[in-house]
Amino acid sequence: MNEFKKKLTAIFFPLLAVICVFLFYSHTLNYSWKFFDEEIIYSETIFPIPKDFSNYIEIVKNLGLKNHFEASNTFYSNIANVRGTPLDTIFLLTIFLLFKKSAFCYHLFSLVLHSINTFILGLSISKVLSFNRRGSAASLSGGFLACILSLMWALHPGNVESILFATNIGALVTYFFCSLYLLLYIKLLDIENKTIKDFNLFQKILIFTFYLFPLFLNEYSVTLPIMIFLLIFLYSRSYVNLSLIESIKTSFNRTLPLILALLVFILYFIIKLLSSNVSSSTTDISLIFERVFWLSPQIFFHFIKLILYPQFLSIDQTSLVNLGQTMFSPQVIFCFLSMYAPLLLSLFILFKSTKKKIVYFTSLTFLLFFISLLPFLHILSPIYNLASERYLYLPTYALILGLSHFLNFSNKKSYLIILSASLISLGIFSYRTFTRSLEWKDSRTLLESAIQTAPNKLFKGLRTLMIAHSIKESASPNLIEIERIRKDALKIIESSLIELNNTTKSSYRIPGILKFYGLDNKTLAAKNAFLLAMCRYELGHKRIEVKETFSPYIRDLKVIDSQILRFYYPILFFTNDIDTAEKILISSLNSKRYNSNLFLALADISEYKYRNIKAAENYLLKSFELFPYDPTTLFGLKRIYRVNNDYNKFAHYSYLYELRTHDPISLQEAVTGYLVLKDKKMSRKLLDRLNKEYSSNESTDYLNQLYKKVFND
To answer: What does the DSSP assignment read for 390-449?
Structure first.
């Protein structure tokens, strides 16, 4: 009975933390969609929302699982990360099928996942507290402290974005597996028998299999085997007193299922990389050196500030990273030492024999934090975003978990100090988290908060213009207000361009990595000019004036990304500047910065300038190979085959376009095509769908009559 009470007490406090977290965030469940990436869901930008399970199967069967999408932002960097795995496609389509366009369902699911992760962290901390304090996990003081530490993580302001950003739902699932695996491996340590237990063969197979899911869903979990290896290694050294070699062997043996799963993922990634023509990285050794030893430490230090002083929170967190403009400024040197000195010291401690366990766990805490943050430090690879608050979800989890080990070495006095400091921190964090959550209420409040924290006029102008976009997309747009906000944005953007043009005249040599990322003032001025051209276009300025706004700056852009191409190419096309458009397209093609907009534009050039329908078809097919869910690509192929009188392919791509966009006209065209081909099976199948899913009209009635006539049915 006494043992049962201990277990109940150990579970009670993590559950108490869960209740607190759920109640704290409950006011966010009815928040509306945000006009900031969440349009991916409600506008079905990347994937369609299946109507039902049969439609889900039909979509997967016909459009496949090999879809890619580009993660990029013109104003964050020149980097583009092309993503997409079969599992990612299945997961998103499944989520879309279940939740449709209900913002409430996405917010509820995210909050439930966050609550579960909070519970797992509470259990992990309770287990850690039991290592040196026998029974403390079940004691009131130990359980209360585990609850407070869990809440410090769960209610940290940096985690608001992770919870309230609906498109981050896949990352939360990934983090659930990470937190679960950390708990499972912590439980392997048997203090009484001074040993580290092992999993049986069946359990190892399950660990291997289930780790593949977060790996192929989201790359954020790639460093999990290293984190767990470190945990087991330090437990072997400090609690079991194994030798260095024995500790390495034990750690490797316990984490082997995770390592094998990671190798499978890496092999898949290498094969995919070799077969892909998309390039967003560089093999220039000097640029790699600058990225790792100049850029990464400054990003690392920014994350440290964000954790300890989460005052300046923004969806444009990348713009708040303070980067030096020279290689060896005091700021750069300080950031370098802040990251690499603790890293080297922790690695040294890791392999040094010492009887002071607190020294071991000092290195453990830093290394767990650093390794969990590693995918976002631009050390492994460049990524399009320098920093985001949602990147801190697992690193802050690892930091709290690592720090909990220190409590095993605290006396009563230090314990009270830690408890008091934790309560004060929790109070401060909770207040800032609540105010931050209110900023996520709707698109306007979120964008206005970004404007308030924007470090320059470029981002102020960008988000002001986005407010006008969000109002335009609302149910009852106020056209007068939209016009006023666009004019305000225009003034800000014009002023920003003047300032950037003045700063480009500076003569000092900036690091090459800034130019590679497109963060030098000359490139930023060109991007500012693009934003100015777009703003003027939305205000109704003539296309020729819009072109003259941006054209002088186009040569300063080393990379024409998809957003600029999508806007600028039609301007050139409609002002009959086809030759300039072609040069830009060929330059983008040669840089291997592939996206669907590039292929579609090249198809247009091939068809309208050279009258080469075959070349246009090839470009569209290449786009379909990489981006089968892109609706414009499907529409282009449908149109090409209609021009070619290829009824078989016209009917096929009309059908695919309807699956992607739910367009009844395309479904009617597909039925017509299959009737011409006298394909009874497909005609009947699609005609039944047409009758079931769309309202009857003259065209539908005609097709029903035509079917009877063609097949005498």
So the answer is: GGGHHHHHHHHHHHHGGGGG--HHHHHHHHHHHHHHHHHHHHHHHHHHHHTSSHHHHHHH
